[in-house]
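User: Hi! I'm working on a homework problem where we have to compare a predicted structure to a textbook description. Could you give me the structure for the chain below?
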Amino acid sequence: MIAGTAGAGKTSLALRWAHQVRERFPDGQLYANLRGYDPGEPVAAREALHRLLTSLGVPAEAVPQDLDAAAALYRSLLADRRVLVVLDNAATVGQVRPLLPGSAHSLVLVTSRSRLSGLAVRDGARRLTLGVLPEPEAVALLRVVTAGYRPVDDERKLAELARLCARLPLALRIAAERAASHPHLRLDDLIADLRDESALWDALSTGDDEEAEAIRTVFAWSYRALSEQAARLFRLLGLHPGPEFGLRAAAALAGSTSISRSRQLLDSLVGAHLLEQTAPDRYQFHDLLRAYAIDQAQHEEPPIEREAALRRVLEWYLHTADAAQGWINPAEDRVTLTPASDDISPLTFSEYDAAVDWAEREHDNLLQAIRTAADTGHDRLTWQLATVLWNAQFPSVSGTSWPSVGRTGLEAAERMGDRAAQGALHTYLGMAYTRINRQTESLESHENALTIRRDLGDRLGEARSLNLIGLNHLRARRLDPAARHFEEAIFAFQEQDAAHWAATALSNLATTHYRAGRLPEAATAIDQALAAHRALGDQRGEGNILRVLSDVQRERGDFEASLASAQAALDIALSLRNLRLEGFWLLTLGDAQQAKGQYAEALTSYQRSATLHRRLADRSREALAWQGVGEVYRRLGRHADGADFHRQAASAHCDLGDGWHQALALDGLASAVLGESPEEARRHWTEALRLIADFSDPRSVAVREGIERRLAETS
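Assistant: Happy to help. Predicted structure tokens:
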């Protein structure tokens, strides 16, 4: 572990050493910048694990969302490898510990400005504390950077320049770049400029941190050498919600419609080492430089200009996200936005994939934009950004990222007294809570939305809330209330000529009939819904009803048709790049494959579904996948393995309060352990009967009778 004050110096040294020892680690090297001292949010361990796992070849959609699960996968992948892991700019032990491999084969190099004593005490880290560069090495660094650009400078003058930079590597590099870019200016004059800058900072500072003041001095020296336009852009970039940004967001901050001019200014900042280019038209700040840019904006930019710049970039994100929603979620209501001002140029998209790529790349910035809007009192922008982001999220986004900013948006709408906005945000919060199995909060949110929409006389919004409340009841297997809500929603949608939503609610009604075991009613609703979705060109809706059709076909014994319907649904999910739909519909494909005797294929489908749902933090559907695995293993005669998966599923359903699926898992578990322990099997069947005693639909009656029969046969 390398600790010290000069962040960039530690980074350079760590990367240089990593390059020198690369042959000792034949399986490669991993690097993560944890941004522990960035003015914004540091990189969370879960996010860092996601990046490291994708670097190890794990598909992004297969990375577990749960921190412990992701860390376990990471450790298992590194167990037999010799890899060097560089964790740069860590702030806390909590950032680092989940990123430590579990074996002694790999080495972790951590850089930090803190001592991180916990790593030394608990994890056996060896601390190496770095000070500033010795004078000879500082002079050598200046010579290397300026070589070929200037006449050979006097050793004593270079030593004086190094002392003014406090012999800090980041400051030395910037100073050397300044010297190299002015080859005909005497070093005496450059030193005088820097000394003048130093005197200014001395007068303004307390002198408590000499190294920090030296860094600021060199930053100021380089900053004041910029053109007026480049300097203005630099300080305005400090107002950007996150440390990384694209060309067009930078242009929005500057209020420039000339993209080529903005690129030129950014290139000049990169050339002055005040900014780093990470990809074509993509840039990021070093955390110290971002802090300096923020400080310069506060001191040099008039409040009215700061306010205007911040509003421009927030509006740029809002309008661009709205354009992305048009491709990602076109059926959802669009927020009524005022036209974009003439000094910003929001992006437009020509295809679905381009919109998804942008939404994925900018997701963290969009989340932070909502927080920034709230912190700076832009209530309208806050709720609008939160609303648009819900509908413009990339399809494989984690279920855990939006609720906090959704609540922030709701609070802003409440401050404004905007009831329609409150209704929309209650709706999206209800949907978000469903995704992470917080059903009580989901129902409360949807009921709040229903009340608001009835108060406003919003009949279409009321119908949407009824449909969503029906889904909440469906997921909790309250089938009669679910059906009533869907039927009421269908009538209201038809009344409003909302064909898309009427077809969606009809699909939900078909699912309800199927879950209840009323197959003729389900088949009738399926035929109507499938025709409606296809007429509307609604691929997502078509895939969803194909899933239900596959289930009905399977139960009627038409396994070939069931398999074809499930595969067609999955193909739609893949074409939409929607991991949530893919994970859910893989359950149906696994059921069809299992029914047809394709056990290896079914195991693959269930296991992929479980992986996706773990990443999406949907424990309920993850447990359904493990239940499927348990059923396949029982059919293969691997009863012990089947029992393990049924236990895992039953435990998860118990934790979630899902008595119905817990009972099904216990039924499978009882069958798996029957040969070894009839008494244990009877206990599980008895508990399953208790859990489903209050259900009265045809399927529940059939399941209960089957369990009672098996229980009687073992008595």
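For your comparison, note the following. Residues 86 and 109 are 5 Å apart (CA to CA). The radius of gyration is 30 Å. Good luck with the assignment!
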